[in-house]
Every structure is written in structure tokens, then in C-alpha cells.
Give the backbone structure.
Amino acid sequence: MSVLSAGLSRNQQIIGLFAWLLLSVVTAAIGSAASIQAAPFYAELIRPDWAPPAWLFGPVWTVLYALMAIAAWLVWRIDGFGANSGSRARMALLLFIAQLIANALWSWLFFYWRDSALAFVDIVLLWLLIAATLVMFWRITPAAGVLLVPYLLWVSFAAALNYSLWQLNLS
């Protein structure tokens, strides 16, 4: 299905892109609110040798949130949320929103409540949601799926780091 068949004007597409970017920024802000004291907390943890420095997380997440928003927009502009509640785009976008919730929750679990075990459970769920979203996005428009690959890879790395931090800091 082409973009033109969705019947969206150029202005509607621009507004849609802005809305998906805004949703990603809001998700980032919710996670950031829990991470205000993340740097000192992260510095206090016993970390594996391969753990990245705290300053790296902000730039990486900024790029990932932008890619996520563009991927969602690419799917949305094909069929929006669709009049048909069973549309593939609608289901994929609802799954995308579910993974955003799990994404924001992780920061609260790990940094605010300092529960690395529950954060690990959340990040495993997040990984599964991202993988499912990636597959659904790919089936609708491969470009959207490709844009989620760096996110899935980063969350894979973050899950391994979360697990290591949990195990190294059990006390």
C-alpha cells in the first residue's frame, strides 16, 4: 500500500511525524525524570569492564528515540490507526506504544527504585516487545523495521549490562 493510498496530505504527514517525535520525547522525559541521579548511582555500582561510561547513554538514546519515532511514522502514514481495528498498522502501532511504556518503566525500576532484578524482567519484556514490533513494522514497510534494528541491538546490550549489574551488586 503506498503513502498516497492512505490519503494523507503533506501537512498531515508532517503533523504525524511531529506527533510520533513528540511521543518519543515524552517517553524519554518520563524515563529521564527517574534518571536525574543516574550518574552518581551508576558510578557507585560495581560494573563489568565492558560497561560504557555514563555520558554515552544520553547521545545513544537520543538517536534511538528519533529512529523509533521515524519508524512509527512510516507505519502510521501507510494506514494510520486504520478504521479497521484489526488493521496490521493499528496492531503494530499499539505494540509500539506498549514497548514505549516498558521502555520508560525501566528507568524507574533501575534508577529510581533501584530494583535491578525487576528492571531485568522489564528489559526482557521490552526486548520481546521490540522484536515483535520490528517484525510487524518490517512486514508493513521494511524501512521501518530496519530503523528499529539499532534499538533492538542496544537493548540487547543493555539487557546484558542490566543482568551483570544485578549480579555484581546483589548486596
The radius of gyration is 17 Å. The chain has a mean pLDDT of 93.
